[in-house]
Amino acid sequence: MGDNLAPVVNLPEITEPVKIVSNAEVRFALNYCTINYTMSFYGWKDWEHELDWMALNGVNLLLAPTGMEAVWQSTLRKLGYNEKEILQFIAGPAFTSWWLMGNLEGWGGPVTQGMIDQQVVLQKKILGRMKTLGMQPVMQGFYGMAPTTLKDKGINVLEQGKWAGGFQRPAFLKPDDHFKKIAGIYYDEMKKLYGSNLHYFAGDPFHEGGKSGGVNVADYGQLIQAEMQEYFPGSTWVLMGWQINPSSQILSKLDKSKVLVQELFGENTANWFTRKGYEGTPFIWCTVTNFGEKNGLYGKLQRFANEVYRANTSEYAPLMKGVGIMPEGIHNNPVVYNLVLDLAWHPEKVETPDWIKSFVVARYGKDNEKIQQAWQIFLQTVYSSYNKSQEGPPESVFCARPSLKVTNVSSWGTRERNYDLARFKEGVKLFVAASKEMKSSVTYQIDKIDFVRQVLSNKGELVYKDMVTAYEQKNIQQFSKQSALFLSLIKLQDSLLNCNEHFQLHTWLKQAYNFGQTPAEKKLAIKNAKTQITYWGPDDQATNLHEYANKEWSGLMKSLYLPRWEMFITASMAELKGENAPAAPDYFSFEHNWSNQPDLFLPVRITAVEQDQIIRRILK
Question: What is the pLDDT of residues 367-396, one digit of tens each?
């Protein structure tokens, strides 16, 4: 979310050597989902910047599943698959994570050979840069996942049923000779492409409701690890501590000295403690914080500090190997990632009101009293550690499929704000008051838009409630007034977000456009990009994944969310007036059609004066 490149005017005098040793053996970064919600269309320039940022923040272990399409392509060729069959298995560029996690097959495809080849080139550059920086990649291990069509090749598999929005899951191999044969091919092909100097592998069998089908799960885990060790001796199997995974059964027969569990959802869970150090398995403490890369402000900062310190000083301290950031999307809440990675260098307990003071200087390039005061308020509001579990930031009703009963925008999200909205707004006003002193700070300008965006999003919640109340009271005049105000807020949000490229739909779509090298590839990439942030999939109006990756972005606000709400308000007004109501809006068809259009939504230039006027209007 921007770089602070402000020059250091006065370098500190170092009279004697200073040595600080991290109390975290492992400093981990990235979630499978990050690879798609943020990085689907990253080119080398993007990855180089990302890796440098990670290194500067002390990361030494990084998830790196790019370029696995080619590994699977070579593997399946040796199993007798033709090219068409292979491409039916591989997911499109915005959905590879869920393919690799064993959630779906082929969605977003078929990709081209050019796309597969360019990802190989990119992965080799990523691995080369990581080696230079002293970082270890976590590669995609073989954990039994295979195409469901293997059964048509005479190989018995465990059917896995459906996942989330109705996707057919890949199958799992039964623990027989076919498992060993295919694992061997897979790892040999990985070595050919990416070398043998690989030491960490990820892959979670039976992820999010998979079916073991009567197979002994303990033996299955032991088999996965045995094949990993045969081809990459001494390697570590990295497992996600998510929901019931890794199960006690799968851990029971493993060589735990070669396993690393990620306490994935650390902002809400403490499985490392309740499961007694994952039954004696090395683990790291991580936070997701963000789901679907929704851009709400959120992060239980003091809880992060407390839990890391608690784990490091508990009876399970010998098993606590470090910290990690595992957001589903990383393009949000930079303070979260800075704090968690910084905790790796603090043996003492960190108090965030003190820590935030240095963050302000590091983030914006210089100190400022108004900003310091604002951040103390943010710690008490959007970044407070309230004792309530939720998946990611509070969502914006602007982004919801319209209804009189919008309880949440995405299936597992929440619109509840667990903080004082008026107090937060006062903090934003303080932050904005520093505009003149901070006009040369790029990061300040980014955060200013983000904080003001949240104020307007919060106001939208109140106006929505008033609009619904007016409808329920059959007050046509009041419904007309509140619905007009609600639509004006969406338009105002679009104008605000248009002020900075970090909040523009065009930024995401331009990456997708550049990802494709031919007209057909560009079309596919853009469709992938649009589908992911709207109805997600599959092509079924019953999908419960729609809006999972909703975004308050300029272009998206005006072209998708605004028309949907206009349709809803028109239909609702007709009902109130007793007119022949139009057919209920078909939001799915509208979203599906929108995702298939080629528009790149070029941003409209907003002057500094116009930006100030927009912000004043929101904060008045």
Answer: 999 999 999 999 999 999 999 999 999 999
